[in-house]
């Protein structure tokens, strides 16, 4: 699988060139990769939570939404105070983005810790109840957003210099998607580094394979559960904020809408594999954009189609451990 | 000298099934205590109860005089008990070295020194140290599993059916390695392979139907053909 | 089977059957059926009749979901989708094939059943072999996909606005039925009979040897496999059965409400409703669905009145205003609380208490 992935992505990237002319292809590719990266942010946390804790976390979508709204609140406040969104200065814009990111990640992280301790831990091991309880938590969290911020769509302030596009050799490259791609790659690199070069990462990787063994080696797996859940939540929050800026609007149901994509990506990529969710997310993002350009109504079907195809060939997902 | 491990009339359930119905053992220090019995007698369940993976419904488990039943597995492990489960529990996607590192309770100079000694004890592991553990042979995996238990300072080692599924010559190597270790470690060995058990064991217990039905020395059991036939069908 | 000698299992089954015949539960059930049957005679308001039938329909739907989730132990999110298939099939057959006839209605029901059966089998073949979590996610993906399809394929399904077909004969709006009864009452009885029939069918299913095997699989899949049962086949049969029943009920819903759109027939709200009904009533109790449906639907009809009341009390603050409007919030909180404190649901807890009083004898599952 390690060797096949580059081939897959390469094929995924190059095939559509047969049907789409190069300049449109480039724009679509950038959009597709960006969308993929944003889904990756959500899916990566989800897959680790599944892989390590065996928890089907429906609340992940709510964390996505809360991250977006928290970041939105920070962005609006900062912009109101210092005008950093409208400002033409890259530094001010970057500052706003950074603060918004901090706000969204912190809020989602904190919510994640709370959820794990209060909602998820008591029903650990009982799949049905986990599903139900995280579902209930999602409903409550989504409704709370409607209570606090109102049920309507809100416009997300996007920093001025991140809007619009660059003109690269007569090709239109949208700026924000490019930033999203860079961010996604950075997150992926950071996660991989954490997983392979730190002790915590080592224990998490071992736990994904066999939690019981990790425990009899003397490690309190519950702490790692909380850590992974919280980290995954933070990532979801970040994904929410970025998605909000990407679409320039946020609404309370955004989490639920994106969650299904994240689920499909986790299925495609395999439980517990961060690389798997990256590959899956990029495939889904690209496929969606190419197909939406060619045959708009079939776009949603394509993601399902990829999922079905993967399930036929490898039921545990592209990078999934054969469980 | 008090016993290192004491299991007193333990009853354990898995779901609705009463697997253990009164198990009692006493494990002497610096000796190898063997737990024998047919398939399904409850030997593995006993080990898992001691390690805290399964909570006993009744009875007590004491390590060096202190009660450990009801405590979570990681706390029990940290008291100085190493566990090599049935099927080894190797992390296939991690390398050999990573497997050893995960097993360390804390990664420090002392643990790394022990790891070096383990690699010295099992040269195959040294040779494949960077390889993914899933690619090892059965015998090598077993060595790794035992090696993992040894990277920590332990006062008690629990090993569950190490010879299972291994070729006779590999079992031979295993026995040699264990003989080298047994002199200064207290070991509880669960085995169905009687030949191996009788070579290594000092004391022994036989289990049947979830209960301990015989307690004595290995030598006594090995000499008594009637008993062997009755409990082990050997 | 040798004459005169019965095995222990057969003896136990006979004893259970005799006990069931004498148990108070049987009389309770008969009383409930009578209550539903006699309701129209009391000249109830339109809303009350509507509520009663909806409770019956959804109770049966919840029971069919319980067969899948409670008796077979498969967590699936596709159930509302099958309900929707049935509803749309009937709506399309009756509305799009010319003047509606009973034949069209039957065709619609059969089509809905067929589609649901096939889809259930297809999804099952794909996904029953993987981890339970995966399966749940896959059914969710399919359900979402069906929803999006229904919304996008406007030409066929009427898109978001849905379909408002005219029903044939006595089921049509404002029709008059035999014996001077209004068409609505006849429809009521027809659908009630169907619900009852389906309930009995499901009861036989779960108490049959097949049903018991399914419960064994639910409790310990490895053991069942070891005993030689092809668990995969059994699970497939059970989930297909549940889906087919849901489809029939969907058709019935279409006949009663005469309006089908993605949100009300196919969407997540229905799925959540059914889930909550099963949880409240009790997983693995079949009739728990009745308790759950009654509680949920009655609360929902009363809620708008409460909402108005609540709204007027806190007219000042915006946030408090919103808090009083968002009944879904309380739904969610209720959901979580029920799962935490009453995981066995109303009926499940009652049965457990009764069983303990009986001194540990196995409760009627």
Give the secondary structure arrangement, pairings included.
The complex is a heterotrimer of chains A (323), B (234) and C (365).
Chain A: H1 4-14, H2 22-53, H3 60-82, H4 90-120, H5 127-149, E1 154-155, E2 165-168, E3 171-174, H6 175-197, H7 199-209, H8 211-216, H9 221-247, E4 249-250, H10 254-269, H11 274-294, H12 299-313
Antiparallel strand pairs in A: 1-4, 2-3
Helix pairs in contact in A: 1-11, 2-6, 2-7, 2-9, 2-10, 2-11, 3-4, 3-5, 3-9, 3-10, 4-9, 6-7, 10-11, 10-12, 11-12
Chain B: E1 5-14, E2 17-27, E3 32-37, H1 43-50, E4 58-63, E5 66-67, H2 73-78, E6 81-84, H3 96-103, H4 109-121, H5 123-127, H6 138-150, E7 156-160, H7 168-182, E8 186-190, H8 194-200, E9 203-208, E10 211-217, H9 218-223, H10 225-232
Parallel strand pairs in B: 3-8, 3-9, 6-7, 7-8
Antiparallel strand pairs in B: 1-2, 1-4, 4-5, 9-10
Helix pairs in contact in B: 3-6
Chain C: H1 8-22, H2 24-38, H3 46-71, H4 79-96, H5 102-127, H6 132-152, H7 154-157, H8 183-207, H9 209-219, H10 221-226, H11 231-257, H12 262-266, H13 268-281, H14 288-313, H15 318-325, H16 327-341, H17 345-357
Helix pairs in contact in C: 3-8, 3-11, 3-13, 3-14, 4-5, 4-11, 5-11, 8-9, 8-11, 9-11, 13-14, 13-17, 14-15
What does this protein look like?
The complex is a heterotrimer of chains A (323), B (234) and C (365). Chain A has 323 residues and is mostly helical. Chain A is 74% helix and 4% strand. In chain A, a hairpin with a 2-residue loop joins β2 (165-168) and β3. Chain A is globular and about 60 Å long. Chain B has helices spanning 43-50, 73-78, 96-103, 109-121, 123-127, 138-150, 168-182, 194-200, 218-223, 225-232; strands spanning 5-14, 17-27, 32-37, 58-63, 66-67, 81-84, 156-160, 186-190, 203-208, 211-217. Chain B folds into two domains: 1-80 and 158-234, P-loop containing nucleotide triphosphate hydrolases (Rossmann fold); 87-154, no CATH class. The two termini of chain B are 34 Å apart. By secondary structure, chain B is an alpha/beta fold. Chain C has 17 helices and no strands. Chains A and C meet through α5, α10 and α12 of A and α6, α13, α15 and α16 of C.
Give me the CATH fold name of chain C: ABC transporter involved in vitamin B12 uptake, BtuC
The CATH class label of chain A is: Mainly Alpha
**What class do helices, strands and sheet pairing of chain C give?**
mainly alpha
> So, CATH architecture of chain C?
Orthogonal Bundle
Q: Greatest chain-chain interface?
A: A-C, 42 and 39 residues
Largest beta-sheet details of chain A = 2 strands, antiparallel
CA-based shape of chain C: globular
Distance between the termini of chain A: 16 Å
Residue fraction in strands of chain C = under 5%
Total strands of chain A: the figure is: 4
The biggest beta sheet of chain C is recorded as: none
Work out the radius of gyration of chain C. 22 Å
Helix content of chain C: over 70%
Oligomer: heterotrimer
The residue-averaged pLDDT of chain A reads 86
Q: Which strand order do you get reading across the main beta sheet of chain A?
A: 1-4
**CATH architecture label of chain A:** Orthogonal Bundle
- The total domain count of chain C is 1
Measured by DSSP, the beta-strand proportion of chain A falls in under 5%
Overall pLDDT confidence of chain C:
80
């Amino acid at each position: 699988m390690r060797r096949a992935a580059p081939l897959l992505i390469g094929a995924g990237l190059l095939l559509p060139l047969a049907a789409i002319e190069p300049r449109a292809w480039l724009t679509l590719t950038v959009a597709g990769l960006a969308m993929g990266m944003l889904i990756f942010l959500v899916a990566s946390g989800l897959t680790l939570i599944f892989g390590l804790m065996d928890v089907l976390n429906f609340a992940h979508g709510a964390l996505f939404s809360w991250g977006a709204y928290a970041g939105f609140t920070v962005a609006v406040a900062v912009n109101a105070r210092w005008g950093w969104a409208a400002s033409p200065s890259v530094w001010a814009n970057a500052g706003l983005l950074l603060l918004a990111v901090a706000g969204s990640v912190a809020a989602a992280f904190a919510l994640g810790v709370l959820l794990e301790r209060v909602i998820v831990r008591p029903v650990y091991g009982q799949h049905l109840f986990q599903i139900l309880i995280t579902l209930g938590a999602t409903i409550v969290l989504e409704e709370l957003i409607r209570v606090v911020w109102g049920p309507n769509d809100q416009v997300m302030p996007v920093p001025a210099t991140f809007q619009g596009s660059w003109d690269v050799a007569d090709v239109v490259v949208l700026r924000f998607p490019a930033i999203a791609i860079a961010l996604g790659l950075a997150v992926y690199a950071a996660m991989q580094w954490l997983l392979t070069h730190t002790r915590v990462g080592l224990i998490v990787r071992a736990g994904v394979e066999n939690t019981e063994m990790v425990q009899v080696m003397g490690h309190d797996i519950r702490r790692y559960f909380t850590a992974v859940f919280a980290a995954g939540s933070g990532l979801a929050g970040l994904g929410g904020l970025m998605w909000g800026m990407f679409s320039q609007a946020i609404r309370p149901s955004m989490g639920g809408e994106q969650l299904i994509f994240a689920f499909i990506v986790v299925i495609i990529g395999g439980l517990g594999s961060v690389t798997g969710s990256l590959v899956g997310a990029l495939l889904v993002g690209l496929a969606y954009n190419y197909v939406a350009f060619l045959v708009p109504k079939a776009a949603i079907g394509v993601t399902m189609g990829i999922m079905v195809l993967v399930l036929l060939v490898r039921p545990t997902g592209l990078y999934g451990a054969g469980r | 000298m008090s016993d290192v491990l004491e299991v007193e009339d333990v009853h354990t359930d898995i779901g609705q099934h009463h697997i253990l119905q009164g198990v009692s053992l006493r494990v002497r220090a610096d000796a190898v205590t063997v737990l024998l019995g047919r398939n399904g007698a409850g030997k593995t369940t006993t080990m898992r109860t001691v390690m805290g993976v399964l909570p006993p419904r009744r009875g007590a488990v004491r390590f060096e005089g202190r009660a450990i039943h009801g405590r979570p597995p990681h706390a029990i492990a940290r008291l100085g008990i190493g566990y090599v489960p049935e099927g080894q529990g190797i992390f296939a996607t991690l390398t050999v070295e990573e497997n050893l590192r995960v097993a360390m309770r804390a990664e420090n100079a002392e643990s790394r020194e022990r790891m070096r000694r383990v690699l010295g004890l099992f040269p195959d592991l040294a040779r494949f140290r960077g390889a993914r553990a899933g690619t090892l042979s059965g015998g090598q995996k077993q060595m790794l599993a035992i090696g993992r238990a040894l990277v920590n300072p332990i006062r008690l080692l629990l090993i569950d059916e190490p010879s299972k599924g291994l070729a006779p010559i590999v079992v031979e190597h295993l026995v040699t390695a264990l003989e080298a270790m047994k002199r200064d470690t207290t070991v509880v060995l669960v085995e169905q392979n009687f030949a191996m058990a009788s070579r290594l064991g000092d004391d022994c217990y036989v289990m049947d139907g979830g209960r301990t039905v015989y307690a004595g020395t290995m030598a006594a059991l090995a000499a008594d053909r009637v008993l062997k036939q009755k409990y082990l069908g050997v | 089977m040798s004459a005169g000698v019965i095995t222990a299992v057969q003896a136990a089954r006979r004893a259970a059957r005799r006990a069931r015949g004498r148990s108070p539960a049987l009389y309770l059930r008969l009383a409930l059926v009578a209550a539903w049957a006699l309701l129209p005679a009391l000249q109830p308001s339109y809303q009350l009749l509507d509520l009663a039938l909806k409770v019956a329909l959804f109770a049966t739907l919840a029971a069919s979901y319980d067969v899948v989730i409670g008796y077979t132990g498969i967590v699936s999110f596709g159930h509302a989708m099958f309900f929707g298939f049935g509803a749309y099939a009937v709506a399309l057959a009756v509305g799009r094939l010319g003047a509606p006839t009973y034949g069209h209605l039957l065709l619609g029901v059969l089509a809905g059943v067929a589609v649901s059966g096939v889809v259930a089998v297809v999804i099952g073949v794909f996904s029953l072999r993987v981890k339970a979590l995966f399966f749940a996610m896959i059914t969710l993906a399919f359900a979402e996909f069906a929803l999006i399809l229904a919304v996008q394929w406007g030409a066929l399904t009427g898109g978001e606005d849905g379909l408002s077909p005219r029903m044939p004969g006595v089921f049509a709006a404002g029709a008059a039925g035999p014996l001077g009864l209004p068409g609505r009452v006849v429809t009521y009885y027809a659908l009630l009979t169907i619900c009852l029939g389906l309930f009995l069918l499901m009861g036989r299913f779960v108490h049959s040897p097949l049903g018991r095997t399914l419960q064994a699989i639910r409790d310990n899949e490895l053991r069942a496999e070891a005993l030689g049962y092809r668990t995969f086949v059994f699970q497939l049969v059970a989930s297909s059965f549940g889906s087919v029943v849901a489809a029939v009920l969907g058709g019935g819903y279409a006949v009663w409400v005469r309006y089908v759109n993605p949100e009300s027939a196919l969407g997540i709200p229905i799925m959540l409703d059914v889930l909550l009904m099963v949880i409240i009533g009790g997983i693995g109790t079949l009739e728990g669905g009745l308790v759950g449906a009654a509680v949920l639907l009655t609360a929902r009809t009363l809620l708008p009145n409460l909402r108005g009341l609540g709204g007027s009390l806190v007219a000042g603050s915006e946030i408090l205003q919103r808090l009083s409007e968002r009944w879904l919030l309380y739904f969610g909180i209720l959901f979580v609380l029920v799962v935490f404190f009453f995981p066995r649901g109303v009926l499940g807890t009652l049965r457990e208490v009764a069983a303990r009083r009986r001194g540990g004898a196995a409760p009627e599952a």
